[in-house]
Amino acid sequence: MPSEDSPQPTEVVSLTGAHHRFGRQHVLKGVDLTVRRGECVVLYGSNGSGKSTLLALLSTRYALRQGSYLLDGMDTARHGDETRDRLVFIGHHTHLYGHLTPVENLRFFADLRNLSPSEARLREAVAEVGLARVADKPSRWFSAGMRKRLALARMLLANPSLLLLDEPYSALDAQGVAWLNAMLIRYQEQGGAVVMASHDPDRVAVLRHLPHHLDRGILTPAPPPPRHEEPPPC
Amino acid sequence: MKFLARMQAPLGVLTLIALAVGLWMVWNAPADFQQGGAVRILYLHVPSAKMSLFCYVFLTIASIVHLWKRSETADILAEAATAVGISFTGITLASGAIWGKPMWGTWWAWDARLTSMLVLLILYKGLMVLRHSMDDPTKGARATAILAIVGAVDLPIIHYSVVWWRTLHQPPSLAAAEKSGIHISGPLLPPLLAMSVAFILMGVYMLTLKARQIEAQRKLDALEAARLHHE
Amino acid sequence: MLKAAYRIAWKDVAGDFRRRATLSSMLFFAISVLVVFQAAFEPDRKEALRLLPGLLWATTLFTTLVGLGRVFQAEEEDGAFEGLLLASVPRGVIFFGKWLGNLLLTLLVELMILPLTMVLFNVDVWRQAGEILGILTLGTVGLTGLGTLLAAMTQGARSRETLLALLLLPLTAPLLIAGVQAMAGILTGGEVTPWIRLMVIFDVIYLALTPWAFGWLVEE
User: Which of B20, B177, B211, C90 has the fewest beta carbons closer than 10 A?
Assistant: First the structure.
C-alpha cells in the first residue's frame, strides 16, 4: 500500500466536468470529483443514475470525451496504459477464469500488471481472503461469495493508489462484510483512496467516508439516504 | 439531414429525366458488329459496377469519420451506403450473367471481375448482418465501421488474387470485351456517359432516401426506448 | 510488454489442454470434414493428389472457424474480457496474445490433419510434407489474425458462428486461392513464388492492421 512519505500529490482523483453519453442518452452531465489520499467516497443513487458509468470512467475503461481526469497528478487521456496500473476496479463481474485455480488467476492478474509476486506471496493473498483450502482447485465451481473474495484478493497484490468498487458487499455474508471493512479500513489508514458505489448505508457505516449522491448524471455531496426505506436490491 | 430532405424531390425528378434520356440513347445506339444487340446490357452493367465500388469508397470514408468523430450522421450515411451498394452489386451481377449467356454460352463463367463482385456482395451482406446482430447499436455501429475499413484494405487484394487466379485458366473476360466493345468504338461512348450520369444521380437519390429512412427509424426506436423507460 | 501477450496465449493454450475443449473439437471436426469429402468425391489415387491442396485448405478453413468461435469464450465467463482491458497493457498486446494462442492451437491441429489426410486419401507426399506445412502455416497466420479480430468483433452478436463464417470466408479468399495454387505448384509442378509472395503480403498487412483495429473496437 502507498506509504505516508511517498512524494505523490495528496489528490488521487481529480475529475472535472466529466460528461458521458450513450448514443443520444446523456448519462453524466458535468461531474466534478476530488478524492484525496485516505479518503473513501461512497456513491449513492438509484439504478440508472450513472454510478457504474462514473466508475467505468474512473477506471479509464470508458474514454473521457469531455472534461479532464488526473490520477495521481497524471493526465489519463495521455498516459492511459500507465495510469491503469495505479488503480484496481472490482465491479459486478469478478473477471475470473473458471479453468484456472485461485493462485493461477492471481498470477495471471499480476503478470498483466508486470508485478512478479512469489508463489508464497500469492498463496498468502489467497489465504488472507479465506480461500487457502481451495487454493489449487479450478475456480469454476466456487460460490458467488468465494469468487468475490478472490476478486478482492487482487487489491492485496497490486497496492493501488485508487480502489474502485461497484457494490462490493453483494454476495458477501456477514463475516465477509466484516472482513472487507477491516481490509478497507487498513487500506485507508495506509493512504489508499476508495470510490465505491453502494445501495447499502448500513454496511458502509463503519468506514470513515464521504457520502455523495448521484441523480440523473449530477453528483452532489449529500448525507446517506435514510436507512431501509427500500430493501437493498442485491 | 434537413438539407437532404429538401434536395430529395428535385433530385428524384432529375434522376428520372437522366434515366429516360440515357435509355433513349441506348435504344438508338448502333449494335456492335461482334456482340450484336447484347452489347446494350453493358450500358447498364458498367455504370452499376462503378456505382458498386463507389458506394464502397463512400462507405469507407463515412466509417472512418464515424470512428474518428463518433458522428451519428456518418454512421447513418454508412448504413445507407451499404444498402445502396448491395443493390448496385446485385444489378451488376445479374446484368453480367445476362450478358454472359449469349457471349460465353453460360450464365456464369467465373470471370475475374464478376467473381470479385460476388465477393463484394457477400461483404456488403456481412456488413448488414453484423450491424443488426448486435443488441447494442453503438457497438454494432463501431464493429461495422471497422469491418468496412478492413474490407476496404482487403478488396484490392481480393481483386488481384482473383484476377491472377482466373487468368491462369481463361484470358478473355468481360473486361477485355468491354475494351473492344466500348472504349474503342466512338459512337458507343455518349450513351455510356449518359447512363453513368443517370446512375450517379440514382445512387445519390437512393442514398438520400435510405439515410432519411434510417434516421427516422432510429428516432422512433429512441422514442420507444424512452417510453419503456418511463413506464 | 510481450510477456503479457505470451501469458495470455499461455493461459488460453494451457487452459485448453486442461479442458481438452477446443483442440479436440477442432480435430474431430476436421476428421468429419475429411470423411465428408471422401464420401462426396470418392477420389482414386491420382485424383486425390490433384484434390489434395483443396481438401487440405477447405478442411483447414472449416476447422479454423471452429477454433475462432471459441477464442473469446473463456473471456466471456464473468466479464474476464473487461478484466483484460483494465490491465495496463496496450490493446494491441492483448490482441497479439489472443491471436498467438489461437494460432498455436490451430497449427497443432494442422500438424495432425496432414498425416491423417495422407492416410485417409491414400496419397504419399511425405517428401513434400515440410513445404506443405510451411504453406499451411503461412496461410494460418493470416487466417487466424483476421479471424481473431472478427471473433472479437462478433462478441455478443446473435448466431455468432454463422456470422463469423459469413465474414471470414470472403475476406480470406486471397489466402485460400494463393494457398491452393502454391500447394498445387509444389505437388504437381507450377508457379509457387508469386503465390507465396501474395500470402506474405496478406499476412504482413493484417498483422499490422488488426491490433490497431482491435484497439478501436474495444474503446468506449
Answer: B20
